[in-house]
Amino acid sequence: MRVWGAVPLKIVSANLQSLANVDAGAASDYIGKSQPDLIALQELGHDAAALFERNRADYPYKKLFPSANKEGSGAGIMSKLPINSASLHSFGHNFPTIECEVQTPAGPVVVVNAHPWPPGSWVMWEEQLLWESGVASLVRASKNPVIVVGDFNASQWGWVFRKLVDDTKLQDTSLGYGIQPTWPTDVPALGIAIDHVLASREFQVLRHYPGPKIGSDHWPLVVELSLLKSDSTKALSNKPIRQF
Questions:
Q1: Are strands 38-44 and 7-15 parallel, antiparallel or unpaired?
Q2: Alpha-carbon span 22 to 207, nearest angstrom
């Protein structure tokens, strides 16, 4: 059930797979059709960043950090809402993490676009722990509502994912929506959900679903939230509020 006075916020998380030189044209077209309020991009390459700069004037607020070389290890955030500030963080050797303060009609919201290395070895497992610790510290330092979004390279049952939820007290927005695979698109029967959105308790979760294929090995993840204004939250418990 929607809460009167709440501000809607539609978020898309999209891993562009620029590491494999995937053309971002399909992703740009999908963004144009779906018109989310905010897009978090992972594996952002120079060609994709240049395309979004040219073609996505409908998103006047962009913080795009493509990789230093031609590979797609960068990240980006595009928003219809003003971005007050943005910082780029490095936690170990993981992909870059973007921290933005986005100005919504209900007040500022901190958005963290995070992407760790997959846990393919003991060294990479240690990198995931560094990532978790860094992201959790950003969340705990915020005085505003927080959204953590991105390719976590882990399912919601993974130990690092559960540790991040426990350490930050954020809600897993997928709860109540079943299993919605986001990777890999070429073998749907073996798909798992490794793209996620975590949100503060000030948010109501309205919808949670994967988008269509955009050429990447990931389906984009779409999460529709509403931000409860401070006078509304006083009458609510500290439990996640969801639309089933």
A1: parallel
A2: 28
d(CA 204, CA 196): 16
Distance CA 9, CA 39 (A): 11
Sheet containing strand 171-172, edge to edge, reads 83-89, 97-104, 107-113, 146-151, 195-199, 171-172
Global pTM reads 0.91
The CA radius of gyration of the chain, in Å to the nearest whole number, is: 17
pLDDT at position 25: 97
Strand, helix or coil for residue 163: helix
pLDDT at 122: 86
- With beta carbons less than 8 A apart as the criterion, state whether 144 and 84 touch: no
According to the model, what pLDDT value does residue 155 have? 95
Q: Among candidates 79, 69, 80, 61, which has minimal Cα distance to 44?
A: 69
Residue closest to 42 by CA, chosen among 142, 156, 131: 131
In sequence order, which residues have a C-beta less than 8 Å from that of residue 83 and are 6 or more positions away?
61, 63, 77, 100, 101, 102, 103
Low pLDDT (below 70) residues in the chain: 1-5, 68-72, 229-244
Backbone angles phi, psi at 149, to 5 degrees: -135, 150
What is the pLDDT at residue 5?
66
Q: What is the pLDDT of residue 235?
A: 41
At 210 the pLDDT is: 98
Q: How far apart are CA 138 and CA 231, in angstroms?
A: 25
**Alpha carbons 61 and 100: distance in angstroms, whole number:** 11
Residue 122 has a CB neighbour count (10 Å cut-off) of 8
